């Protein structure tokens, strides 16, 4: 009886440590982070997935922020370049507007003499008409003498002309009382009251000194 009573008790099994504490599903996952990529190696069940996702999102957010910062910097530099270009254009426009007035030409001594000659010629032409006289022209000249009120009339052929501004002169040859006479007249002299071209002859030479050896009929003219 005693043995039969002990057998049932011996068949009872006490719970072991393994049954009390079941195997947990917790496993350690090795995580390795890098700057641009997150690599995860799982050895067991997925227990830390929320943490891994958060880590990925944070790293991706940092990478995106870096990319946007790199993209924004060229825009800022481009704006600076455009601003400098506009400033350079404005400065060039200001320089073009603020041009210095032209300098007055320096008048030399020979130029002063030329200016005075022009003024004297203009004043003489206001008093009398001076025609364009050439060698070979037959002219009539009225000249005022010092002791006479009447004007002396000279008519002859122009054998030479000296053009020197207000000091321009002509040499005429004519016959008077059977003798040949040559007289030089200053064209712009105030004593010459009138010069008139009677006729024009075409000649090849500028100096007609060869008429001195010709017959008087080539330079004899009747006065009116």
Automatic annotation (TrEMBL):
SUPFAM superfamilies, sorted: Translation proteins SH3-like domain
UniProt KW Ribosomal protein keyword: yes
Pfam families: Ribosomal_L19 (PF01245)
Keywords: Ribonucleoprotein, Ribosomal protein
Single annotated GO MF: mRNA binding
InterPro entries: Ribosomal_bL19, Ribosomal_bL19_sf, Translation_prot_SH3-like_sf
Region annotation Disordered: where it falls in the sequence: 60-87
Skewed-composition ranges (Acidic residues): 68-87
GO biological process: one example: translation
Source species, domain of life: Eukaryota
GO CC annotation: ribonucleoprotein complex; ribosome
Family: Belongs to the bacterial ribosomal protein bL19 family.
Name of the protein described by the UniProt record: 50S ribosomal protein L19
């Amino acid at each position: 009886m005693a043995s039969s009573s002990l057998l049932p008790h011996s068949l009872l099994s006490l719970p072991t440590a393994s049954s009390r504490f079941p195997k947990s599903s917790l496993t350690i996952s090795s995580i390795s982070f890098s700057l641009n990529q997150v690599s995860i190696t799982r050895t067991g069940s997925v227990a830390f997935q929320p943490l891994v996702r958060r880590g990925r999102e944070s790293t991706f957010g940092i990478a995106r922020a870096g990319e946007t910062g790199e993209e924004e910097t060229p825009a800022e530099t481009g704006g600076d370049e455009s601003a400098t270009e506009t400033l350079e254009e404005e400065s060039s426009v200001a320089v073009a507007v603020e041009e210095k007035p032209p300098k007055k030409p320096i008048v030399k001594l020979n130029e002063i003499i030329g200016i005075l000659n022009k003024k004297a010629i203009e004043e003489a032409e206001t008093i009398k008409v001076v025609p364009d006289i050439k060698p070979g022209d037959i002219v009539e000249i009225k000249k005022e003498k010092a002791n006479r009120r009447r004007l002396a009339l000279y008519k002859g052929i122009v054998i030479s002309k000296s053009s020197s501004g207000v000091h321009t002169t002509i040499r005429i040859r004519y016959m008077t009382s059977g003798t040949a006479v040559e007289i030089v007249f200053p064209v712009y002299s105030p004593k010459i009251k009138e010069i008139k071209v009677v006729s024009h002859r075409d000649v090849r030479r500028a100096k007609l000194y060869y008429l001195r050896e010709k017959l008087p009929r080539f330079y004899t003219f009747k006065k009116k």
